[in-house]
Specification:
Layout lengths: L2 E6 L5 H9 L2 E2 L2 E2 L1 E6 L3 H12 L10 H12 L3 E3 L11 E4 L13 H13 L5 E4 L7 H16 L8 E4 L12 H4 L4 E4 L2 H12 L10 E2 L3 H32 L3 H8 L20 H4 L2 H8 L8 H24 L7 E5 L14 H11 L3 E5 L8 E2 L11 E4 L4 H4 L11 E4 L6 H9 L3 E4 L5
Parallel strand pairs: 1-4, 1-6, 4-5, 6-7, 7-8, 9-10, 11-12, 11-14, 12-13, 14-15, 15-16
Antiparallel strand pairs: 2-3, 8-9
Helix pairs in contact: 1-3, 4-5, 8-12, 12-13
């Protein structure tokens, strides 16, 4: 029997999830009727327009994602809800909204309103599945008491509506779609029945035989797994920043050092030098443990590694500025072309972009900045043809977009000074620039 599934929150995580679910088949038939809901009415209208025109709401070079989306549009497989009241028809509701602590006075207010609305509307036998990254303890300490109170008012038994948690691990970029279906997922439920429902649902679209699901003992444990995972990733990135500065003083090739270390399988995930941390998750998720301790379990616990990691990552673009400044003393009035504005390669997402932070630092020091990004078309960012390098004094490679990996070598001019700040250029490009005596500097390398 076809089930109704609604994804709440249709951003860079929720919308691709809706596409994936709209393509799930069982015995040759489409398994789910997929609906999307977003509280932002402007976004709702925008998404309806995109679906009618069969156009993705964001740029992506993932052919699988585009093909699956076109299939969904052609056969009307994704429908956008205008009213939250329609959630009463859903068998599964996936909560994929953002959460942060920008509202310091009442940080859980919007989340509580959301879960209150869903619980009042949800039908018996339905599953409410959270994918949102939450501070450990949020569900059991903050949301669950409200859920139980509402279910009691509706004269439902605990739990006639099932609740579960399975944080997303989606990776925007070249393998956008497969990061949903071919990825390890952790999950848990508020009780055994809920946990089983989550498992069955995940198995309907995750390639679980190749990427086994991990059942956690509790939702709090599952929340903790995501926060610790992103804390580890953020700390790994921060660690390299100080080694970049050290290697620069020693005049050694840090990339060569790291690649030698990576030969050991146990050390293969050490990070490479880069411009900095961006996106929605990494800049904030590492701080969730500290916020959980203070605001949920009410303990004054210290997290010195996390505090230092966050501080270093916020300042990483300044390290790249110092790297440039060391080689070009006078940056005032220099015309600089920044190639790549998004926080990550092959996706048009500006949230917490290190490139934008570097741009502001350079502007404050009198440089004239022009930005290009093939995935973004905004007032201050060009997405069309890359302008002639001859118009600029300095070219900064900041994001490893596929478009920049295939640049015609003839466009490089000896008039320019080139900086690769994010391991963007291929060896062929580097060898060409060096052979022809172009001025090239690569963050973390002695070239």
């Amino acid at each position: 029997m076809t089930k109704n599934v609604c994804v709440m929150g249709l951003g860079f995580v929720g919308f691709p999830m809706a596409i994936a679910l709209a393509n799930v088949k069982s015995k040759g038939y489409i398994k789910y009727k997929v609906f999307g809901y977003d509280n932002n009415k402007y976004k709702t209208s925008f998404l309806l327009n995109c679906i009618n025109k069969r156009k993705l709401p964001f740029k992506s070079n993932d052919k699988i994602l585009r093909d699956k989306y076109l299939f969904s549009c052609k056969f009307n497989k994704i429908r956008i809800l205008r009213e939250a009241s329609e959630l009463k028809k859903m068998d599964v509701v996936i909560v994929s909204v953002g959460f942060d602590f920008l509202n310091k006075a009442r940080p859980f207010e919007n989340l509580l309103k959301l879960i209150e609305n869903i619980t009042f509307i949800a039908k018996k036998g339905s599953l409410i599945l959270f994918e949102t990254t939450l501070p450990p303890g949020t569900f059991e300490k903050i949301l669950l008491p409200k859920i139980k109170s509402i279910l009691k008012k509706r004269k439902f038994k605990n739990f006639d509506v099932s609740f579960g948690y399975s944080y997303e691990r989606i990776m925007p970029g070249q393998n956008y779609f497969l990061s949903i279906t071919n990825n390890y997922r952790c999950f848990s439920g508020v009780d055994k029945k809920s946990s089983k429902k989550v498992e069955i649902f995940l198995k309907s679209f995750v390639n679980y035989k190749k990427f086994p699901l991990k059942k956690m003992h509790s939702i709090t444990e599952c929340e903790t797994a995501k926060v610790l995972e992103n804390s580890y990733r953020a700390t790994n990135i921060a660690l390299i920043d100080e080694w970049v500065k050290y290697a620069d003083e020693l005049n050694i090739d840090l990339l060569n050092v790291i690649n030698a270390i990576k030969l050991r399988p146990t050390h293969s995930n050490i990070m490479l030098p880069g411009l900095g941390v961006g996106g929605y998750c990494l800049p904030k998720d590492a701080l969730f443990a500290k916020e959980s301790a203070n605001k949920i379990i009410k303990k004054n616990l210290r997290f010195p590694f996390i505090d230092l990691t966050s501080k270093i990552n916020q300042n990483m673009p300044y390290s790249s500025y110092l790297f440039i400044k060391k080689r070009i003393k006078h940056l005032k009035n220099k015309k600089i072309l920044i190639l790549g504005a998004s926080y990550k390669n092959d996706i048009g997402d500006l949230r917490n972009s290190p490139s934008l932070k570097l741009k502001e630092i350079l502007k404050r020091n009198g440089s004239k900045i022009f930005m290009h990004d093939p995935f973004l078309k905004l007032k201050d960012i060009s997405s069309g043809k890359i302008p002639s390098f001859k118009k600029f004094n300095i070219i900064l490679f900041c994001v490893k977009h596929k478009n920049y990996l295939n640049l015609n070598l003839k466009i490089f001019s000896k008039k320019n000074v080139y900086f690769d700040l994010n391991n963007v250029l291929k060896n062929k490009q580097i060898n060409f620039l060096n052979k022809n005596k172009h001025k090239l500097f690569i963050l973390g390398r002695d070239v």
